[in-house]
Every structure is written in structure tokens, then in C-alpha cells.
Backbone:
């Protein structure tokens, strides 16, 4: 006979009160279940956590992480903590925090978390400041906000910092610009550039979770609709692939000719937004740029068009102008806001134009975050090990780490692959052999 | 400058209290928004509702509907009501009721609703009895439960009944069996058999919403997983198509050789469940049969396998046996229950084996329900019009109704199609012309 | 050490000269290899042939078959011959004859074949007459031409005929019209309506072979092109699926609203030909109707548009008018003819508008023809067995034959499927069980 | 009334006899049509040819090109010739020569061509020597054979050489190895590495044409088969995508863990060849390595397995061993050879293990070669312009050339894309802006 058992409550060491600002510590139990559930599909990070627990490579290191506060991030934080780090965690997006996860991190694990779902802009930046108040030696960013604040407002703290990591394409672009201008003050590893990060997280993670976010918010049928994907980078092609997989007729907009040609050859219709805006039922921006959907587009959209964003910042849709154009607004469902233009036409905006996969869904599935965060954990260790050797610039994740993560992941999936025979290795190395 | 306006509160006629059993009438406002949102993508039903409102073809008719109590169903009920019917509504599944929708139907529209999400089995059947207490002249079923109770327990009410409709494949199978045995006591129109119902609702509706339900419940990545679809009927092929669209490696199980061959030719791997159970990461049953996944399969599954059902009844997974086999159970997340077998292996069951697209998601998107429910509304009208001419058997939806619905839908989508030229019509009718 | 061996030459019985009209008997050896190669992927027909050889169910029966004279048809003919039939074979299309196959049938097997690739219209009909001169007792048609000629010109032969079979949708439409008008003079089994025929042959066979024909003729890249499929019946959806699979942006035209809606939900763009003609790079008709692409469309096409047909008759493209509109024509490659309109615009027609999969490729792959022809063979046997019981109308293939063919095919593919347990069979038959 | 006109015969200047070795000059007319047909979908190269014709940037330069002698290559040669070059052309593969194209190049354009389809190994190398006898200043390679022969056998000619280009991945690997060892004697531009080359040619070109080659050779149905793709580089993923698009169940083998993970996430089954060999119906190697399918695999294959290669060299399948294992061989159809092993099991090899898309089909469609060859033409011009500045190493195609080609191609396809607004350009360049 089966019996229902509750989730095991972790042993609590007695400890000093944790410095934190979260919604409600009583949500911890639910968060604990969520963290546990996510952890089950993060086998690579689990293995790293076990090794970190034994070897303590981050012992005593203060680390400020500005990441989406989700169950997957919690698993990263627990790995870093297992490695000996003292972690302060704040949110990289005001809407993406899972309050129950934050509660569990604080209540069950004594992590300093500063994040509340739906916090306003001031609170958002105050929380970053709180995390910086721990005087971090390592920073971990998802959009370069911590780096930005450090370099602009808290320059006195820069002397403590050994290095940092950055998760997103958007952040890496900003950091590269800083390095080029010579203003970057410490070395950063661009986790986003690891193959096991951007080839997976950006494509399969963003692809599925954006579709998930849009469907959760709207419960609309994608089959038979025209779905406009703005941007055909890794995120965009993941999204386009999945939108087509759900039966939509997918239209792609791009600025880069080579990328646009790829979209054409992949069977998508490619056109400028000034055309796409007339035919789309759904729009989703994933470009990393501003005002990708703007007044001239709103004005030509069909009545009832649904607009969303899955790019890092909520700047891709020009919402300021939409507010100005609208004669009224109405919340129809959670994350679904209708703007009625002066003409009477209605435009629907999802999740206030913020990352829809985090606003109305749960972000990337844990199994893709597994690899991204394995890169984060190993890169942090690498920075400490190579302290002194690294310059003030943006580094790639070392290829050996990257390959190792892929290998661990395949192993966890039970997938076996071929090995080169000695003859094959020799052949690849040689050039003398002919037809 | 835009201003935020609340949803317009509908004018309330003063009226006698409504006989109903729902969770909380205060949820009405949220439900109202949801019904409105769904209605926007139900253009066919809207047009029927307008005509019904003018013509009152159902004037004074008592109708008992046993359907999933969702925002889409609410739009059907409002169309029937516009046509003059007095509707009593109960749930066709204990888990699928949207309590806010039920509240709005009662509070805003005076409909007798008997449905509470999560009601136990006794309440479920009591609610059917309550609906039958209105002495219906028309019945509307989604799984033949009202017909079943009427024919078994409430035979005294049969004299009032003029006819009924049935929504599902499962129900139609049961009703055909009854008709064959000569025990069916009134005519039923098999809405499920309309092309504009089963070709769309079962395929595209179930396809998307089942994927949605599984992702909402688990937040797992489908890409790279092995997804086993049991049954390759219309629902099954919809699900298989979408699971592949999300990047899964899809395995199909079937009992019919011709259908199995189609799955093979569609590029899916086909194997018996006794083999599929060893390789699947996700399982979803859509067969209309019992014990499709049973002890012999649980025993061979991988650790952590996730099992769900999207067939009508929660009998497709043999949960009784799984309960017996398990040494403990644990709720990990909403709708996610883990069974630990004596061997230590864990099997995850979603939504207690009930329709996962209704348990953890919102059921079919409204745009597919639009056509199903247009068939319901027009079939009800048809039964009344043809009262006396219909025998005690199961009828197809008249083809003219079916085609008309497709035509209205295309029009609403803005899709134009070709018309046969007179020459083409003549050609098709002729046989004399040769090569 | 391997040694190269030639194909074994079959033993030749001494026999009387065969009445035949083919291109060149010396092509027999190549044809023999082709027939053998096709036979390898026709396991169902092979098994039937073995049984026929033992049981001789067609002993002494005269059979006139008007089919595409291909290696697959040859395997059917050999099975019929093994069953004891005396077969006369003529072509159902002037362009589809494989002359080497015809040669082998005559030279190696003594079959009366009347078919030469590229024969003109007069020869085409003369060949049908020659086949009819054998006074057939069974007819086998692919487009109802033999039935047509028999009923119009050779009514004196009708008294010999016991029954016939028909392979195509097109033919079945014509035969149904004849039966309805009461002019059909003998029973016909509509092989096309067998599930194991039309669900496979029309969809997967036509799908692949039409793409094959178009690519062989043109060597053009489909990826990134706009490919217009006229008609979304089984052939059309097979073709649309494969064109998308090759990376094209597929547009569908239709006249039936329900079918058009399915195409929309499958993610295709649907529009009338009057719009599609402006955007297409490739066009292929599969409708069974006349003048699907006509003057008004030619006039709006893009310069260089490529037009082809995969429907049964070469009437779907209005070539007469195109000839009239053109100021010059030029053969660019085999099966590729360019029409230069007065405006200077060029339109390319493939294979003279005849079935492109037979004109420039080899028709359906043998593994799909396996099932179609198994239906032909078993239907012929069935007609003889039920001689006297059948009326002058169009019959479906008996379901038991159909299912048996699927079962044999799965077995040959090594695919195993589930069997219903006794409990499941009971459940499906019952109606008493509830939620 | 239309009239049939023959292809216009180009005006022939009187000229000295051309030094050439081809099959038959009388094939020129057919080749001319083929070249013309290909040229129609090579709009980028056409535009370059027009400019070259005006500017003569290659005036008087001797160029030896070792490329597949196809209609597309002919268009490249004509562009180079228009630019003023004296071109000697030999084949980069003994089976890929289109003899009619070779004839037209010689007869109509006076190009020195040394290539005969099916030439033996000695002739193959003799033809390379003949091309080198023209003492080339530029080389153009497709597999680095000319570079190889020059560096090994004809070192006396190296002094004339200014630079060269290389078309393939395989060749670039070899050249990089040479450069690393310090033995490369002149600069080479790796055309393969241009985005407009490898992202298109290797993926969409190889994808479609390999499927085309396999179907032409076999006429087998891919739907429902298990298709094993060895290697998931750009060619491999193109092939896998198209095989799936034709309805196959695709299995991928790989040696690189990250690439293997991508294949998994794309929904393919990934396994080592030692497992894949047991389940495959079709095999195609695209790895650039040797002995990818070898004795241990042949021994475990299913009876009737079909093996082919679409990688550059015919070394990917270990045919020597297969010959040894076979007790007999038989040619079943053109390009289809059956090996009967001692056990009686049959293994089918297509096109003698050479590039199947060139052996039994026509190679890449011209529209993809358009971009590859535009890169060749512009790179040749670039080498001449930068003579003296380039070192003895392998260079990428300058990004500006690459982007320009994409832009010209989109224009030719009639596809418009977005342009960055000044605000967007500023945003991308900036790093100061935050959430």
C-alpha cells in the first residue's frame, strides 16, 4: 500500500538571520519542490555540485549574481554554495522572479536573495545595490546590469572584483563594446558564447519556452495563424522552428542579409516589418535591439494582433508610443493587455513587453539551463584558478570546458556516439592523401 | 493619453435566484473576461448567436448540457440562451471546470451551473442529477454520461427528451453500441463526426493543448526527448505532429494495422507498448481504451518516466495497479505526482491520469471549439426542426451544416478559396471525356 | 574474391510468338533488372504471387489491363499470370511506359503488351483496342479508359466481361457517375478507395515521386521557393508535405472549404489561384479537374514560373491556350519546355503537362505500389469468386482484404503493433462504464 | 500561333584549335542548353559576369580550375573568361563530369577542358597535369588536388602561382594542415568558409541533391524508412533535414559531442554506427573522414541495406573490404551495385561510393552554386588586386564580399529585409543603457 509523504524538510542549521528582501518566506516549501524538480533534469550541474562539495574551489569567495530567480538558478546557486561561495542573488528582470524559489533559497539555504516578482524599477535597482553591498569578488550577470552599475555608480567596489561571467548575447555585446572602449575594469567570461550555451539555451530553450509563454498567456491556437518572428539569430530560429512545429505560417524579419537568406532557404517567408505587420496574427521580437515594432507598424497591424517580446530587454516593442496612441487600455487576462487605438483597432500586448517566456511561463526548461549554468559554474572556477593571468577583456569559455559539458550531457541522456579510430585521426591530420 | 478602464459590467436584470452549485460567485468578474476573450476567436459561433438572438429557434426549450465548463462552453451556452433555450450545465469531467467561468454564467447570465473544479465522484454524479432535474428536452453530452444516467437511473425522464448531441469519439462509440442493442431511446446527432469537428478539434485542438498541458505541468524540454503517443487516431496524430514540432523523437503505438502503417509512413517509429515503454521519456495515451499503459509497462519504464493521458476517460493508464505497485507517492508540483515503486524506480503521473489538456491547461483553444460548438448549436436547432422525423439512432451532422461552418470559418480567417468554373463543374459531373 | 555476374537469364519455354506492340524487344535485359529491383520492395504482392502460383485462382481468365507500364505493374502482371490469367497490357498514359519493362514482359514472360513511350493519341487508343481484342473477362483500369472504350465503341464485348477494377480517384469518379446514370454494365471494384491504396499510394507515392519528377526535370532548388499545390486531396497533401520537407514555402489552392481549412491548420498559406499565380515559383496541379491553371493565371505569373501536373489527365493545365498565347516555344532540357508570351514573359511547362512523376521520373516507388497492386490482385480474385453475386455498380474493396494487406506490409517492414487485450475488446464493445 | 525555335547557336569566332580532352564535341548543343538553363538561376554570378565583361579584372591571367565539370561550373568559367582569364578546366571527380557541358565549353567558348565522365584514375591525374601544363597563375580547387599535385609533383610551376581558392571543407582542412606545417607555397582563399558558401551550398545544396541522387539511383520510397546520416556538419544537417522532410525516420552518427547534442535536440536519434548499422535501410556518409562504414558495420547490416556517400572523397565507405567480403557482385540498375556476402546477405552500394549527388544526379542546384561561385569569382579578383600583400596561408573570404553576395541574392529573389534605423544602430553600439 502506498502512502503519501510530504517533501522531506531539509535539516536547518541554526544560523544568523539572512540579509534578504523577498516576498514571503512561507512560500519556501513550494519553492523547495520546484527546485528539486528542476534539479532532476540538471545532471551536468549535479555532477559539478558534487565535485564542488568535495573540493570547495570557491571557498570563501563572495559572489554577486544577477540572474532570473528561478528554480534552475537556485540549482546553480546551490552548486556555487557547495563549492564554498557566499552568494548574493538579485533579479535580472523584475517580472521573472519565482517568489517561492526565492523563499526556499533564503529559508532553507541561507542565501541572500533580493528579488520580488513584479518589483518596480526603483526596487529593481535597489536590489542590485544590495547585492553589490556584499562587496563581491565575482559577478555573474544576465544582461550586464551588475557590470553596468559597478562601472557607473559603485566604482569603489571594483577593486575587490576578480572577474565575472555574462549569460546573454545582449550582455556580451555591451561588454565587448566596453572592452573596445577600454573601460571594462575586470575580465569577463562570455558564457553565452559557449557552444553548449548558445546553441542550446538560445535555440531550444527560448524556442519552447516562448511558445509556452504565449500559449499560457493567450490560450490561442497557433495552427493556421501567421506568426511573425523578428530576428533570426539563435533565439529567433529556435522560435521560428517551434512556431512552425505548432502549425503556424511563420514570417521572419531580419536586418542581416546572410541570416535573412538562411531563413528563406529554411522555407520561411522573409519580409520587412513594414510588410509583416500587415499580415501577422502573432508577433514576437528576439533581436536584442530597440523599437523593432514601432508606431509605423502598430498603425498597419490587423485588429486584434498579439504582440510579445522574448528578447532580453523590454525595449524591442515601442510601448511608450503605443501608450500614447491608445485611447484606452484593458487587462483581459493575466499578462494580456489590450490597447484600443483611436481608430478603434485593438492591439494586444503580452507581459508588458517583457520576456514572455519568463513573464507568463517558467523560463527555459531546466535541462537546457543545466548546460548554461554548468558553464557558469565552471567559468567561475576557471577565473579563480587563473586569477592574475586574465586581462580586462571578454573571454570565451575555454573549449575544453565546453566539450566536457556536452560529453556529460550526452552521458546523462544515455546517448552514445562514435569515437574516431586511430586511422581516422591520422587521416584528418594528414593532407597527403588524394582522390 | 490612455486610461485604464475595467471590463464593462453587464446590466443585470433583476431576477429570481438561480439554482446552481458552483465554487464562488465572486469569481464572476475574472470569468467574464475569460469568456469575452474566448468569444473573440469564436466568430462562427458569434454569427450563429446573432441569428439565434433574432430568430429564437430554441425558444422555451429545456436543455441539459454536460460539457467541460470552460470559457468556450460558456460562449456556446450564451448562444443557446440567445436562441431561447433554458440551459442547465454540469461538468463532463471533475477536473476541467473553470470556476470563474461557472461563476460568470450564474451571476451574469442566470444559467444553472452545477460544477466545481476538483469535485469528487459523488458530487460529479449528483451534479448530473441536478441538471437532469430540470427535465431536459434536449441533451448535450461530452462522453455520453447524461445519456448513460438517463437510460440507467432516470428512465422516467426519457419521455420528455426530443433528442441530443454528443461531442466525443468515445461517446459516439458508446451510443452506437446502444443503438445497435436497440436500447437507445432518443435520436442523437454525433457532432464528433462532423468534419469541422473531428478534423480540427481532435487534431489541432488536442494536439496543441495536450503539449501545452504537459509543458505547463512539468516545464520539461521536449526537444531531444522520446515522446510516446499511444493511439494514432485524429487526436493521436495531432499530438504526434506537435510533439515532433517541439523537437521530440516521437514513437507511436497502435492496434490497427492500416493506421500503424500511416504512422510509419509519416516518419514515426511504431512499436508495441511493450517496447515503447522501455525507451519513452514522456507517454501520453489518446486511444479511447482502458489500461493502455499497465503493470507490464510500468515495470519496464525508465526511471523518471512521465505518464499522462489526453483521452476522454481517466482509464487509459491503469492507475489502480500503479498505486498498488508504489511504495510511496509524492506531489512534486501541481498536477505532478511521483510514484516510487518498490524497486526505487520513480514514475511520474500528470493530472491524475485525467485529460491533461484540461487538468493543467485550458483545454482546446477557443478557435477550434468555435467549430465544434457551432455544430452543437446548429445540430440542436436541427433536432427541433426535424422533431418527429428522427428515429432512435445516432445521426451524422447534416453535410450542409458542416460545409457552412467551414465556409463561415474561412471567411472569418480572411482566407479566400477557388470556386469551380461552370466548365469544371460540368467536367466533374461527366464521364465521357478521355485522355 | 568477388566476381561480377550478370543477371540470371530466365529459362525460356519455347512458345508461340506473342501478339504485342512495343518499342524494342532487345531492351528486355534492362527491363528484367528493373522488374527484379522493383519486386524486392513489393513483399505483399510477392506473397500473393506465391499463393496464386499454388492455387491458380485466375486459371484461364482473360484480363485486359490498362495501367502505367512500369516495373511495378510488371510485378502485378506476373502475379496475375502466376494465378493463371492471360493478360493483355496497354498503357494508361502515353508518356509513362518504360519500354525496357514492356520488352521484358513480352520477351521473358510472353505477355501481350501494347505500349510505346511517347506514342501519339491514335496509337494510344489503338493499343487499348488491341487489348480489348483479346475479349477480356476482367478489366483493370487506371483512369477508366478501358471501361470508356468498352461502353462507347466496343459494346459487343461487354457480354464477356465479369467485372473490373479501377485504380484512380479520377476513374472512380467517372465510374460512379456512370453507375448513377445506370449505364455501367458490369461490377467494378474501386481499388482506389481501399485504405491501403489511397492513404499510401496517393499521399506518400505521389508526394515523393512528384518532387522527384520536378527535380529531375529541372534540377532547381526547392528550398526558398514558393511552391503552389493546386488541390489538397490525398495527392495534394502528400505533395505539399514533401515540398515543405524540401524547404519550400508552400501555397495551397482548393475549392472545398473544409479541405481548405485543413490546409490552413496544417500551416500552409491558402489562397485562390488568381492570387497564388502571382507568387509561385513552382506550380503543380493535383485536382482531377480541368483548366485549373488557365489564361487568367498565366497572364499574372512571374517570369520563369515553372508549371507541372501530377493529376491523372493532362487537362489540368490549359495548354491549348498557352500555345495560343505564346509567340515561341523552346525545349530547354528533356521535359522542360519554355513558352515565351507576347509580353516577353516566359513560362516553363514540364512534361507537356502530363503526370510529371511518370514523365520525368519513374512513377510511384514500388513499395507503395506493392499495396495498391495487392489490392488489384486480390480484388480480381474476389470478383471471380463472387461472380453472380455482384451488381452493376462500383464496390469498395472488402475491408478484410484491405486490413490483411496492411498486416502483411507491416510484417514485411518488421514493424510490430499492439493487440487488444480481451479486457480492452470488451471495453470497446461495452457502453455501461462511466467516468 | 507559336513556333518551335531551336536554341540560338552562339556566333563562333574563327580560332585556333582548342587544347582539350573531352568525350564528344558533338554533345555541345545539349550542353549549351544545360548551361543556359543553369545560368537562369545564377543571378549573382550573372551580375558579376557583366561587370567582369566591362572591367576585365582578370585580363590575361592563366587560371587552372579543378572543379566538378557541370553546367554551374560552366557559368563560373564563362564569368572568369568574361573577366579576361584564360581558363583550363579539369574534373575534381571522375564521375561528376557532364560530357555535354564539357563539349559546349570547348566547342562554343574555346575553353581548354580535360574531363571525361567515368575516366579512370590515371586519366584523372593526367587531366590535372594537362591543366597544370598551362602554367597557371591562379588555381581553383575543389578538394585541394591541384594544390596537392603542384606541391608534390610540379614544384617547378609554383613560381608562377599568385594564389588560389578552395571550394570544400575537405580541401580547407588539408590546406590548413599544410599551412600549419609551413609547406603551403602560396595564399589560398577558403571559399568554403564564406557564409554565403557553406551555410547554403553545404546545407541546402547537398541536402536536396543527395536525396535526389539516392532517389534517382534507387526509386525507393524514403517515407517509413530508417535513414542513417553519418556526420552532422553542415552537409549532414542539410541531408538529415531533407530525409526527414521526405518522411524518413532519421538516425545521426557523430564523433563530436556538441554536434551530437544538437542532433539530439533537433529530434534525431543519435547512436554510434555500431548500433545504427543494425537499423538502417539507407546510409549516407558526409563526414570528410575515412572508413566511416567498415567491416564491423557491413556485418551487422540488414539484408538489402543501401549504402551511399555524399562526402567529398570516395573513402568514407570501406569498399575494399566490402569487395573482399562479397562472394559476388551485380549491377542492378545504373549506379546500383549489389554485393552478396558469404552469408547470403546483400548490401547495395550506390555510385561506387562516390558523391552520390554528382554520380546519379546533377550535383547542387544552380541557385546554390550561384553564391559559391560568386565567391570564387570575387575571391580570384581579390587575390589579383592584393597580390603582394597576401602571405602563404589560408585566408577567409573578406566579409564585405560575403555580405555583398547575400545582398545580391536576396535582391534577385525579390526578398526585402529591414534596415537598422539610426536609433537602432546607436543602441547596438552603446552599452550605457539599462533595463
Residues:
Amino acid at each position: 500500500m502506498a502512502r503519501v509523504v510530504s517533501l522531506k524538510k531539509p535539516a536547518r542549521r541554526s544560523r544568523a538571520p539572512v540579509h534578504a528582501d523577498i516576498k514571503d518566506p512561507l512560500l519556501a516549501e513550494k519553492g523547495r519542490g520546484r527546485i528539486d524538480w528542476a534539479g532532476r533534469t540538471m545532471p551536468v550541474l549535479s555532477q559539478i555540485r558534487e565535485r564542488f562539495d568535495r573540493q570547495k574551489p570557491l571557498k570563501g569567495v563572495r559572489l554577486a549574481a544577477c540572474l532570473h530567480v528561478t528554480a534552475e538558478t537556485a540549482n546553480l546557486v546551490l552548486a556555487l554554495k557547495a563549492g564554498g561561495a557566499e552568494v548574493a542573488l538579485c533579479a535580472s528582470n523584475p517580472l521573472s522572479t519565482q517568489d517561492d524559489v526565492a523563499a526556499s533559497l533564503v529559508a532553507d539555504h541561507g542565501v541572500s536573495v533580493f528579488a520580488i516578482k513584479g518589483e518596480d524599477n526603483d526596487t529593481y535597482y535597489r536590489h542590485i545595490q544590495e547585492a553589490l553591498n556584499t562587496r563581491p569578488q565575482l559577478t555573474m550577470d544576465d544582461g550586464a546590469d551588475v557590470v553596468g552599475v559597478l562601472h557607473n555608480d559603485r566604482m569603489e567596489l571594483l577593486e575587490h572584483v576578480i572577474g565575472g561571467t555574462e549569460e546573454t548575447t545582449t550582455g556580451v555585446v555591451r561588454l565587448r563594446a566596453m572592452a573596445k572602449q577600454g573601460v571594462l575594469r575586470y575580465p569577463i567570461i562570455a558564457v553565452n558564447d559557449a557552444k553548449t550555451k548558445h546553441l542550446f539555451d538560445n535555440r531550444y530553450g527560448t524556442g519552447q519556452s516562448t511558445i509556452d509563454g504565449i500559449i499560457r498567456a493567450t490560450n490561442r491556437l497557433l495552427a493556421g495563424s501567421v506568426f511573425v518572428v523578428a530576428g533570426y539569430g539563435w533565439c529567433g530560429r529556435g522560435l521560428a522552428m517551434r512556431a512552425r512545429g505548432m502549425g503556424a505560417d511563420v514570417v521572419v524579419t531580419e536586418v542581416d542579409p546572410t541570416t535573412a537568406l538562411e531563413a528563406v532557404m529554411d522555407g520561411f517567408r522573409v519580409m520587412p516589418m513594414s510588410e509583416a505587420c500587415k499580415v501577422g496574427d502573432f508577433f514576437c521580437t528576439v533581436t536584442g535591439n530597440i523599437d523593432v515594432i514601432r508606431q509605423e507598424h502598430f498603425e498597419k497591424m490587423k485588429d486584434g494582433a498579439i504582440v510579445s517580446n522574448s528578447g532580453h530587454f523590454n525595449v524591442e516593442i515601442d510601448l511608450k508610443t503605443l501608450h500614447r496612441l491608445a485611447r484606452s487600455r484593458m487587462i483581459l487576462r493575466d499578462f494580456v493587455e489590450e490597447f484600443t487605438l483611436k481608430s478603434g483597432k485593438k492591439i494586444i500586448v503580452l507581459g508588458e513587453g517583457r520576456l514572455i517566456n519568463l513573464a507568463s511561463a517558467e523560463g527555459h526548461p531546466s535541462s537546457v539551463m543545466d548546460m548554461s549554468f554548468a558553464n557558469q559554474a565552471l567559468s567561475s572556477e576557471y577565473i579563480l584558478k587563473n586569477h592574475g593571468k586574465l586581462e580586462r577583456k571578454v573571454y570565451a569559455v575555454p573549449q575544453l570546458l565546453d566539450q566536457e559539458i556536452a560529453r556529460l550531457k550526452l552521458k546523462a541522456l544515455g546517448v552514445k556516439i562514435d569515437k574516431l579510430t586511430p586511422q581516422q585521426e591520422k587521416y584528418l591530420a594528414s593532407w597527403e592523401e588524394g582522390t
